[in-house]
From TrEMBL, chains A, B:
Record-linked Pfam families: Ldh_1_C, Ldh_1_N
Organism: Salix suchowensis
Domain Lactate/malate dehydrogenase N-terminal: 78-225
Protein name: Malate dehydrogenase [NADP], chloroplastic
Domain Lactate/malate dehydrogenase C-terminal, first and last residues per copy: 228-398
Amino acid sequence: MLCFHSRQTVSLFTLVGPLDQSLEPKSFKITCSVNQVPAPVAVQTEEAKNKSECFGVFCQTYDLKAEEETKSWKKLINVAVSGAAGMISNHLLFKLASGEVFGPDQPVALKLLGSERSFQALEGVAMELEDSLYPLLREVSIGINPYEVFEDAEWALLIGAKPRGPGMERAGLLDINGQIFAEQGKALNAVASRNVKVIVVGNPCNTNALICLKNAPDIPAKNFHALTRLDENRAKCQLALKAGVFYDKVSNMTIWGNHSTTQVPDFLNARINGSPVKEVIKDHKWLEEEFTEKVQKRGGVLIQKWGRSSAASTAVSIADAMKSLVTPTPEGDWFSTGVYTNGNPYGIAQDIVFSMPCRSKGDGDYELVKDITFDEYLRKRIAKSEAELLAEKRCVAHLTGEGVAFCDLPEDTMLPGEM
Amino acid sequence: MLCFHSRQTVSLFTLVGPLDQSLEPKSFKITCSVNQVPAPVAVQTEEAKNKSECFGVFCQTYDLKAEEETKSWKKLINVAVSGAAGMISNHLLFKLASGEVFGPDQPVALKLLGSERSFQALEGVAMELEDSLYPLLREVSIGINPYEVFEDAEWALLIGAKPRGPGMERAGLLDINGQIFAEQGKALNAVASRNVKVIVVGNPCNTNALICLKNAPDIPAKNFHALTRLDENRAKCQLALKAGVFYDKVSNMTIWGNHSTTQVPDFLNARINGSPVKEVIKDHKWLEEEFTEKVQKRGGVLIQKWGRSSAASTAVSIADAMKSLVTPTPEGDWFSTGVYTNGNPYGIAQDIVFSMPCRSKGDGDYELVKDITFDEYLRKRIAKSEAELLAEKRCVAHLTGEGVAFCDLPEDTMLPGEM
């Protein structure tokens, strides 16, 4: 492993092959390089606990077909969740089971992915799901092998990620978590439904989503999302507070770019009571200088207050992101989600995962919104987030199968309060 | 303070007046006595943070009346929650805000009661509720004074309670928490809606509910509940597992008595697929010797697995308990809740809070189910739980205004996994 190290960035890559000597750091001050290596293939052991298995009462046989007929229920939907023993999942799983996301006529199968370390906690979660007697929750299985757990998944909610260790920089986190998402991409590609919808929550989520989709070439790249909905929700709330209105009056809120401190909550296109934000909030200095920081620092403030990160509202925002794809978007409005940029009408670089404004017919798919206004200020900030994501992409080239990685991340842009 | 102490029971009472010498311990081996004292009056300080105040975006003015008309929304409902910064509340509050409990046309005001120590965490919870943008959540206020927070409450969910300290026995817990519930009862009596429905979750919940209702003489005693719904849910799940059916096939499940190890999950009257349990589960030895223990030990097993107590499924069961009172009970079925025993048709002692089978028309009220079968085995176990609750009642007489307290709790019957 070879690392050129100065300023704040350290990169930790596992070097598997010989160093590629042709790599030229060019003008970058900080670079790390590793050879392009085939991304790791998951080891498929035959141990019992490696197998994804139905849990407890959910192993009972029952005639769901009869219920599909008598109750006009839809066909069972398979939802896989990674990091299933964590706090975000502990909120989200019960929302999925209750019918809050997919509606009262949609039976649900939950496929929970944990780790060897968290396996007992995973059993605990499954037991609490048993004890909740949700009529729509028809199957629960738990496992630690993504090739088992993701089988036939129609949704994959990728929440699990390694937290940042002491002294670890964003580049190190990118590599460590990137490896997880490369493996999970391969697993999805191998066993999931051919039209699986994937929402990546584990950070850094945009680039993790890019890694994941690159490792799942048989699944449409369009199906991969990076979660920026919590940022959107927080931005709406801050605009409502400033304008002195209730939050349901704020619409057309876009988060552009990376789920990091370079994210761009767009107050140029957002509306309050149907009017442009800048017509309602006359304090443009606040919009330009304080608003974005308020949105970004929310997670950090919450950790200070509450002593842990915001699991409940993150879970709410994941549910919101899913509902936005399975419910028609209200006329004239849109929502934000980090998606693959190929073919975007905004001039944003191709081949990254970038949060942009979308609309859905409620069929699980989406289209980008066309009538968006840009000004110099907005363009400049979008370009900064774009540059960051391009740098992150270069940093994980060894995980996307696109050559030799080198890191030139200019600074650490993790959101406060995030791992 | 005078304590006669032997075996396992210790009682810790705060003695305020001179000892009543007329107290005769009679045949009890272990007794504690305190003078009957007027229950403490809450100190109403004028400090700002003692005041219950609207939080953040929920302080915005908006025309809810217009929405009541245009969206056919119901009138705003006030729900007070104590222990609002705790883990159970962290699940429950989002269910209440989402419409899962009261339905999609019922706007909700949440009034959160915390403590001085938890006040910052309470702000954190309110911030996460802000960021969740629930359209039905129209007001959130936080405070540490029940006389402020309970004002006009139509529901009071009393979750907060002191956990058991090292070496503290049930009698000690009864007194410490009893004082909290006496004060909260007085506060409800002073400021809550005259028809407030109260669900006591903080343990020991049956006797806490009794203390609470005794301190709220202007509110119908019938309106007070002690939560045994998690026990009911767990019992249904265990019967389903044993019978090899899905849990939605189990009905008519009663938990009788105290939320403690003397609770009686009733397999005589419960049904599976409409048939008596004993006809479906032929292993009567399992029913008599293992089933009850499986239900009771569930919380302890969960703590082992999951490392903390079962907040999520407890919150689900509180939501279930509320839904059972605001939704008509399905024909032929019933649910369990700990309620005041006056006028019960089962021969259970008057003037305690005992879990029994109930039905509701969905108006917030309930009636006891009449057609219940008893056998010797069921009677005997109900009598044991009844005796325990009568003993607990004697133990807290100083908090119910009914004379001199003395404790003769035969053994520690806290449920494993509970505080």
